[in-house]
């Protein structure tokens, strides 16, 4: 059986492309995390806050400019209608027209936009240009994904991250003030270099085209997804913009470093989710629901103890990745990690809706939770500072998980997925560790004593899990 599996062409292809995508993902994440100690020592918390808001602006503007049509390219490629390149060219032309339209819109309302983001107007100019090129890159990479050119796509992602991070650090060292401009210069250089390479590769088949049928297809596919993407963007980055607007650049920088360290959990969960998704679909297609339940329990176990470890050693992680000017952000990191644990649980159960092609429900719930998130931020940040933003994100991800779990419980009982009491042990352990960690921080312990106590707690929690899990899991 194993030899048959290894000789299976489809399986070999799956492994090959998964390896390429996961390698690119891990390398990109590694480059970003390794750069953090340098960023935090070159930039003050205020400068780091400006840089974070700038990156949030680029992300948000790229999402809006992209119109959600990237997925349409992948889908249309496999319809094999013989006119894919005309479809691709139409989408490129459409994105250029939309891009120039939004740029004109920006210049009419640039003062209002600048007053909201509270960063220099020049940075916003750079951000718009970067977003424009980013959409072009994303559309071409959708074509690479559809045509299974995973090596080229992975190389491009690594190249873009390497230039964007590497050159930003070099440029910042030469700037005497406003060092955050180094990030914008490097990001602009990265997208221009990559766009030039892409333009050279597409010159043989690219031409301006506006096919009404293709535009209708792309917008019908993309616009509902766009609302979902905007709402996801609000949940993941909008809190930094609001902190900058309501509190200031220093507080934004402190929150951003805590957010990035907390993202270690989300990044690992996202990378494993890339491997989980094809297995998930395969098990559902074969009606192997019990196998999927067992696999889900193991998956939750892994991410649970990743979260526990990151919470317990959040102080040590912060000290490694950040300069002492950022140490006061320590209390935020465990809250961010717990929030991402709920996002991980949501990622499991939203997969059922994707499998059933209920994308409208996904968009509606994400928009609803996005509105809740904005409301909570406006309410909590003025009273509790950037810690309030962390709690509002945690509550939003919890709500997102509950909505999708409830939807599965009501509509997809046939899949016989895990009952809610299965989450009792992981959530209880995480909550207990969160309280213990907050207590340990205020004890007068040296570094070795603190690390030993944390290792003991981690071992104890692991033992408790194995002792009691049979009473919940059966």
Word description of this protein:
- The chain is mainly alpha-helical.
- Helices cover 84% and strands 0% of the residues.
- The protein has 18 helices and no strands.
- Helix 2 packs parallel to helix 8.
- The chain is globular, with a radius of gyration of 23 Å.
- The two termini are 31 Å apart.
The gist of it:
The protein is mainly alpha-helical. The chain has helices at 2-7, 9-42, 45-66, 70-77, 84-108, 110-117, 121-146, 150-174, 181-202, 212-246, 249-285, 289-312, 314-321, 333-355, 359-384, 386-411, 424-440, 447-473. Mean pLDDT is 79; it is low at 1-15.
Report the biggest beta sheet as strand number plus sense, adding barrel if it closes.
Answer: none
Helix content: over 70%
Mean pLDDT across all residues, rounded? 79
Count of β-strands: 0
Secondary structural class: mainly alpha
Tell me the overall shape: globular
Query: What Rg is obtained from the alpha carbons, in whole angstroms?
Result: 23 Å
The N- and C-terminal alpha carbons lie at a distance of: 31 Å
Number of helices: 18
Order of helices and strands: HHHHHHHHHHHHHHHHHH
Low-confidence stretches: 1-15
* SS strand fraction: under 5%
């Amino acid at each position: 059986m194993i030899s048959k599996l290894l000789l299976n062409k489809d399986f070999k292809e799956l492994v090959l492309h998964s390896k390429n995508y996961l390698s690119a993902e891990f390398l990109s994440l590694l480059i970003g995390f390794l750069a953090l100690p340098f960023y935090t020592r070159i930039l003050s918390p205020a400068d780091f806050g400006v840089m974070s808001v700038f990156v949030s602006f680029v992300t948000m503007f790229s999402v809006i400019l992209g119109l959600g049509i990237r997925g349409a390219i992948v889908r249309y490629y496999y319809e094999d209608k013989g006119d894919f390149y005309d479809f691709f060219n139409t989408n490129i032309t459409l994105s250029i027209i939309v891009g120039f339209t939004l740029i004109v819109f920006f210049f009419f309302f640039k003062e209002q936009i600048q007053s909201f983001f509270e960063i220099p107007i020049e940075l916003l100019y750079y951000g718009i240009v970067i977003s424009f090129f980013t959409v072009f890159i994303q559309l071409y990479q959708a074509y690479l994904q559809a045509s299974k050119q995973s090596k080229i796509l992975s190389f491009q992602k690594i190249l873009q991250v390497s230039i964007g991070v590497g050159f930003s650090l070099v440029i910042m060292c030469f700037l005497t003030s406003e060092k955050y401009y180094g990030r914008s210069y490097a990001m602009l250089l990265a997208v221009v270099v990559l766009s030039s390479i892409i333009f050279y590769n597409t010159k043989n088949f690219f031409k301006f085209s506006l096919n009404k049928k293709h535009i209708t297809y792309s917008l019908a596919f993309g616009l509902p997804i766009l609302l979902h993407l905007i709402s996801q963007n609000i949940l993941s980055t909008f809190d930094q913009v609001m902190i900058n607007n309501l509190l200031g650049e220093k507080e934004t920088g402190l929150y951003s470093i805590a957010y990035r360290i907390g993202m270690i959990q989300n990044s690992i969960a996202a990378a494993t989710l890339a491997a989980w998704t094809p297995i998930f679909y395969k098990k559902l297609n074969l009606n192997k629901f019990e196998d999927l339940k067992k696999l889900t329990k193991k998956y939750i176990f892994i991410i649970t103890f990743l979260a526990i470890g990151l919470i317990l050693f959040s102080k040590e992680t912060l000290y490694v990745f950040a300069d002492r000017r950022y140490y006061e952000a320590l209390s935020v990191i465990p809250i961010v990690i717990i929030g991402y644990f709920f996002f991980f649980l949501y990622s499991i159960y939203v997969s059922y809706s994707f499998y059933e092609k209920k994308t409208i429900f996904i968009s509606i719930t994400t928009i609803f939770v996005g509105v809740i998130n904005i409301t909570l931020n406006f309410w909590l940040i003025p009273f509790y500072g950037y810690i309030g933003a962390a709690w509002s994100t945690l509550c939003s991800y919890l709500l997102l998980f509950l909505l999708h779990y409830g939807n599965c419980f009501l509509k997809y009982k046939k899949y016989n997925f895990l009952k809610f009491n299965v989450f009792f042990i992981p959530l209880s352990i995480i909550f207990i560790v969160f309280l213990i960690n907050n207590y340990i921080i205020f004890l007068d312990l040296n570094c070795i004593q603190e690390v030993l106590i944390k290792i003991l707690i981690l071992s104890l929690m692991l033992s408790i899990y194995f002792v009691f899990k049979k009473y919940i899991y059966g």
